[in-house]
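ERR on first pass: missing label on line 2. Operator R.T. fixed the label and resubmitted. Corrected input:
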Amino acid sequence: MKTETKWQAVISNDAHYDGVFVYAIKTTGIYCKPSCKSRTPNHVNVEYYKTNEQAETAGYRACKRCLARQVNSQEIIKKACAFIVAQDGIPKLSAVAAHVGLSPNHFQKIFSDGLGISPRSFSDNHRQQVFKKLLQQGDDISGALYEAGFSSSSRVYEFAHRYIGMTPKAYQQGGKNHQIWYSLVSCALGMMLIAATEKGICSVQLGDDENALRIKLAQEFHGADLIESDKQLTKWTQVLVDYLAGQAAWPMLPYDLKATAFQRKVWDHLRTIPAGQTYNYSDVANALGQPKAARAVARACATNPVALVIPCHRIIPKSGGVGGYRWAAERKQKLLELEQSEERVLK
Ligand SMILES: [Zn+2]
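pass 2 clean. output:
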């Protein structure tokens, strides 16, 4: 950015440049945001820095008037999220920024840096959740649209295409005409529900209550023909049960899942981690050649729809402990003990 542009921002107290740079005044040893209403200094005494830290490293102190209330990004993000969720539609960036008292640029940067997604993506994601839920409850599409805060149907079709990968109608039909076979068995970790299409396993859930597992399956695949079957799934079910009993090696079973390219990449990588070994999110991100994607890796693990088949339990936090597990942390603990046990049959 040209010095002249920065200087113009300073003399006009332009808040759009807050967060873009700060200016420091040699004669006072203080640095300010461009929007600071304090007396305009002589330009020859001004130095520019990109960040507060850089100005402080150069020996300047924060101005009490404009920087005294240090920006607490966590608070700002929380406040912005609450505001976005409370709106009827998707709010304008400028409206959210104004709500938290920042310039749009500054706000966008704080939000994206802190959360890993833009305010717009957050907003879309939230609406996606609401919309999906309403459709699953059986609301009609236009009602669900309205409730989720979409003002026009063209907007929702664009959105549906981008995020759900099918039209709202197809989603509401929940994969109609698809046949899904499932089987419920008791295993070393409690009850296990395994469901599969003709192409592969589409759901493996662990729990204590048979009915709760059935209900979950019905919600997820609410338009499909769900066929309880022992025959179709016997082989896959049996190898998983044997593996959990420590009597067979971990089986690489085929899966049939809707996933983003990134999720698939993470999930396939998890299947290369040998039983008995554990890694952390950063290890996986590094292995994928995307060292900055540790958080996205964590999300991909947390959204794994097929317990065991994709061994997300082999990823544990750097800080120690076994970390969270979609099917209860105690189960993860048990699984890791099983895989690390010497008595386990290795093949
Ligand atoms: Zn100031």
